[in-house]
Amino acid sequence: MAIPQGHKASPWPFVAMIGMAGCFFVYAASGLLAPWYGVVLLLVIWVVLFVVTTRWWTPHPKRTLLLPLVAIVVWFGVITAGEVLFDWTA
Questions:
Q1: Is residue 14 one of the residues assigned to a domain?
Q2: What would the pLDDT profile of 12-71 be if each residue is shown by its tens digit?
Q3: Which of the 8 DSSP states describes residue 34?
Q4: Which pLDDT tens digit goes with each residue over 10-26?
Q5: Measured at the alpha carbon of residue 38, what is the angle toward residues 36 and 43, in degrees to the nearest 5?
Q6: Nearest-10 Cα torsion for 60, 65, 68, 70
Q7: Structural domain of 27
Q8: Residue 82: which region, alpha, beta or left (left: phi > 0; alpha: psi -120 to 50)?
Q9: Exposed, middle or buried, 43 (CB in 10 Å: 0-12/13-18/19+)?
Q10: Count of the separate structural domains present in the chain
Q11: Is the whole-model pTM more than 0.90?
Q12: Tell me, what DSSP letter sits at residue 62?
């Protein structure tokens, strides 16, 4: 059975999920730079971004590409703020 032209799956959410998977490893490895509570905070942020990515899968497939970029920027900001404000060091 052929898929109608207007109902083809977009490849962009799949690309975004690959990006989110890569971001997960960065977030999970943050234990080398941050204390346990910082890693827990980062993982909660990642889960929120992951849920938004899954919610945008069908209605906004191109917007999902922004979320891995947002995840990396947020990770960098939290790690940098933790280093400056709370003296997190490796």
A1: no
A2: 999 999 999 999 999 999 999 999 999 999 999 999 999 999 999 989 999 999 999 999
A3: S
A4: 899 999 999 999 999 99
A5: 95
A6: -80
A7: 19-86
A8: alpha
A9: middle
A10: 1
A11: no
A12: T
Tokens of 41: 């905070």
CA distance 55 to 64: 9
What is the end-to-end Cα distance of the chain in Å, rounded? 56
Residue 7 lies in a domain: no
Place of tokens 């703020």: 81
Is 70 part of any domain?
yes
**Tokens representing 57?**
């899968």
Asked whether residue 13 is domain-assigned, the answer is no
**What are the tokens at 7?**
């109902």
**Contact predicate 16/64, CB 8 Å:** yes
> How many residues comprise the chain?
90
Q: How far apart are CA 67 and CA 46, in angstroms?
A: 10
